[in-house]
Design goal:
alpha/beta, two-stranded antiparallel ribbon, 8 helices, globular
Amino acid sequence: MKAIVFLADGFEEVEALTPVDYLRRAGVEVTVAGVSKKEITGSHGIKVCTDAVASESLLSEKFDALIAPGGMLGSSNLAASPVVEKLFKDGENRGAVVAAICAAPVVVLAKAGLLKNRRYTCYPTMENDLEKFAGSSYKALTEGAVHLEERVVVDGNLVTARGAGVAEEFALALVEKLAGKAARDNLHKGIVAR
């Protein structure tokens, strides 16, 4: 199994690196891709050197999961990347896991039409900003979307979460989707998770 985590300047560090760490511990091959450059600075000043730069050449990789961490600036920078949007749409069309946490479900996924007819969660109150981030076509792009106030929501291949405080639960849900329940349970026990 292969996953890609997209980073852009201003990303929320714990929301990005927890899934990377947990998925790698579970044996999932994870590529960390920076938007337009390899060194990305998080919202708290932590610099991360990525494995790759997000480009259309990554379409040939056929990732089993595509993951967007939150952080308002980071999410906005991801949403501004046509390459990231194209990779997410391609993943959705292939039935890959599409995952986002915090601001990213609204800022990144809604704009790409990936919340349409889906149950999702996001950072509290972000659900009220669909028009702001998805634009004037937001009603068509988010038709049938149902916001839930749960910490993590799994709806088929869509995995969303509320924020940094649930990064561990988000990462464990991704492990289960990609590596199975046994891998999730073993990791949960091994890291002494809540």
